[in-house]
Amino acid sequence: MDWMDNWSLALVTFLPLAGALVMLAIPKEQESTHKLVGLLASLATLVVGIWIVANFDYDRGGEFQYLIDRSWIDVINSRFIMGLDGLSLPLFALTVVVVPLVFIYSWNHIPEPGNPKAFLSLMLILETGMIGSFLAEDLILFFVFFEVVLLPMYFMIGVWGGPERKYASIKFFLYTLFGSALMILSFLALYQYAGTFDMRKLPELAQGIPHATWIFGGMFIGFGIKVPMFPFHTWLPDAHTQAPTQGSVILAAVLLKLGTYGFVRIAINILPEAAKTWAPVIAILAVVGIIYGALGCLAQTDMKRLIAFSSVAHMGFVMLGISTLTKHGINAAMFGMVAHGLITGMLFFVAGSVKERYHTLEIKRLGGLLVQAPKMGWILGFASMASLGLPGLAGFWGEFPAILAAYQPAEGLSVPLFRTLMVIASLGTVLAAGYLLWLYQRTAFGTPSEEFADDPHIHDVTPAEWIAWTPFLIAIVLFGVAPGLMFDVTDKALVALGLGA
Amino acid sequence: MLAWVKPVIDWHALAPEIVLVGTICVLLAVDVTLLERAKAVIGSLAGIGLLASLVPILTLATADDEVREMFGGAYVVDRTSLLLKALFVVAGYVVVLLSTNYVGEGDYWESEYYTLMVSSILGMSVMASARDLISIFVALELLSIPAYMLAGWRKRDPRSNEAGLKYYLMGVFASAVLLYGMSLVFGVTGHTLLSEIAAGVAETGNTPALTLGVVFVLVGFAFKVSAVPFHTWAPDTYEGAPTPVTAFLAVASKAAGFVALIQVAATVLAEPSADVWQVTRPVFFVLAALSMTVGNVIALRQTNVVRMLAYSGIAQAGFMLSPFVTLRVEQVADQLVPSVVVYLVIYAAMNLGAFAVVMAVARKTRSAEITSFGGLFTYAPGLTVAMSIFLASLVGIPPLGGWYAKFGIMRVLIEAQTGWSIALSIVLAVNTAIAAYYYLNVAKAMWFDEVPDGDTSPVPVPPSLRTALAITVVATIVFGVLPGILADAASVGPVVALGG
Questions:
Q1: Would you call A188 and B483 a contact, using CB atoms and an 8 Å cutoff?
Q2: Own/partner pairs, B365-370, CB within 8 angstroms, 24+ separation
Q3: Which domain holds residue A55?
Q4: Could you report the per-residue pLDDT of B280-328, keeping only the tens digit for each?
Q5: What is the ipTM score, two decimals?
Q6: How many separate domains does chain A show?
Q7: Does residue A440 lie within any of the structural domains?
Q8: Nearest to B414 among A118, A165, A192 (CB)
Q9: Which residue positions in chain A have pLDDT lower than 70?
Q10: Distance from CA of A322 to the nearest CA of B (A)
Q11: Residue ranges covered by each domain of chain B
Q12: Least CB-CB distance to A192: which of B378, B395, B415?
């Protein structure tokens, strides 16, 4: 398996793209062929992904494995470097698992106006971009993959989205593009001083470079928009609400993590000193995001928009964990990313299916889901409990340790500030319980409203939905009872990055 | 001293131009012998002639790395000039492909059209090698005069007449300004050869007359590359001229203007002992910043794709002018010219592609209004995807060519680390976001909007347009994924070759 050791990362990155190219050659009328090819491509990616994760040497989780290092653009000294370590592994695994499940869900849920060829091939291109971003170890390569994600998502929202799709898609696009324009300027400035784009060497070479605070600032805006952090979050509720179910799931499960991953892997890892300067800003904005997101949720009348706002709050917890700059905090953040991906992804799936049955997501008009579709009602309940951080489910391990970590931030950061923020953030969990239970109460409890009482369209979970959803449910429980599965992996990588023993 | 010396002629180095001259002769001969029947073959002949001239370009490129000089250094064939010649010839070939159906179906004079087109390309090819004020001027006129006529080719349409006349008057005015500037430079230094001018400047130092001459020369070129505030001819000319000619002007003709600018900048302005740069740096800054911003802001309001592309072309010219503010900054001296050349090549690929799609769509809708692109995705998905690729590349989204072009420029500006260049890099970043809006506006119409008249019959795309689209799509993607190919070819610039 020498070949696999050397090339598996490139294979897993470009397999989806190959699938998309195959789909280009098939006429658009053969819709089921397209669904099959798309599913097969994503499953093949999953198989390679499983092989990679299974053969990963967990004892050396802090090192890059399956490393590829080939020349690419020599003139600018940028190389094709890909590697997998304990930090990228959870997010990589999340991506390769979520995408095929979304494909299964798409089997009989192609959103209006149809055209599975375009829809599914965009999703495959998206997968290539996401996997590539998590594996790239060269700033330029990372930037390229980071941007590859942009256009497919723009088209997914704009073509297959809801009534306000045009506005939402252009907002998403312009926000992100503005962020990445500043990000690339920062990367160039880094190169200017450190002389390399190689992310493995940069932490060492970038020590003590001038203007580090400014360079970090450019990345802060670039990644902060993607996360999204308050006050750059305004694109998210629109994008999430208008996107088709598949788009929302991928956005929530994977895309937002590109921002947080960028913070951990690039901004903080390369410029730890500048990160200390910025940490209070990040922490304050994170906590503002938690409270603002929660209050936003309480004000929503649309189920999908509510879930979208809850993302702002949850990503706030992740950013709070990151801002402590400690191993505990970032471990929690890594866990929070995956947990949020699973849980919020699940919630968006349910929201999509509710929308499909009731043709509305207006909370006022819903109700009695447990009566009309009991299994789906229970799944919604389960996912809400997980989302509010119930111990024993995955959500808990993302939030609670992040709050705890704020008790003792890294050396040099203001302890009183972080402890104050800790208290405010814990209030956020109460609010989270509030809005999620209230949502659940209004949509699932009670009796169905008159207009839907005898609607024959409303049926319970279908087999395709079961296949797509079960892995999410299992993972939420599994990581809830055995969080060590993930902490062990990320911990080694963080130690290797020099964040405490 | 003035005794006649027979120049040594390197036939191999001149072969590309000789093939082009031969093509022009063949086209003329076929036209006068076959008369009307010539129409059937003339376009193909022009295309074959252009491709044939690629052969010596390739043999020259692979032969060795040596720089071939002729006529006492007035005519130089090096790697950069070969890359540019290849650009002109391939761009010309794509334009011929775009023209085949347009000219054939529109009841125009055909044989003369192609003859003039090839003549103009010959001028560009000469420009790539010209290192002497006289040969630069001759090349510029050789490439411009046929273009003036081509712009007015739709002679029954008053807008085309307007296009041709405006372009002609402005072009001639620019030539006059340029020539006046050249005469001043010659008067001060006593030389026409760029390298000798540089040496002369080093001797005499800077004088007001020289500064004036250089500024006049720059203004003359600024007209050619449609930089603000010398851009006013461009939108009307672009809209009125036949669309393939517009593509030709927007890409090849503009590139030729930049080539001339590069030659002058890389030798005369880069001369260490001359301090003309103190004057030219602000001039370039203003030209670049104004072109980007004004071009983009006006492009935001356009409802016609061709006009939008015209204004965006002005903005793109601003991007390409930006690296010139780093003239005489040592740490980027060897990157300045390659960054502009790479931008020119990538810009040619994506912009020609965009024009190809506009023409293909206009065959059905008879319109270039952005609204006429509405719902294109539902009935012409292939064209929509191609257009989206070109637009995304023009925005600068990786992994499409445009990102590397912009990246190269930004890199030069940041590494130069002067106040002017850092300020310009921020202007450039902001303009990238502005430009994204209007490029995406077209994408939005194609993907998200309804078909305006409900007519969803497929768009017939003739084979020549298909070929043009294939060439430009492949080039746009390959230059983005493997920009190394281009960057290597452009890396030995005239600065290095001439020891600047």
A1: no
A2: B368/B243, B368/B304, B368/B305, B368/B306, B369/B303, B369/B304, B369/B305, B370/B302, B370/B303, B370/B304, B370/B305, B370/B308, B370/B441, B370/B442, B370/B445
A3: 2-496
A4: 888 899 999 999 999 999 999 889 998 899 899 999 999 999 998 888 8
A5: 0.81
A6: 1
A7: yes
A8: A192
A9: 1, 500-501
A10: 28
A11: 11-497
A12: B415
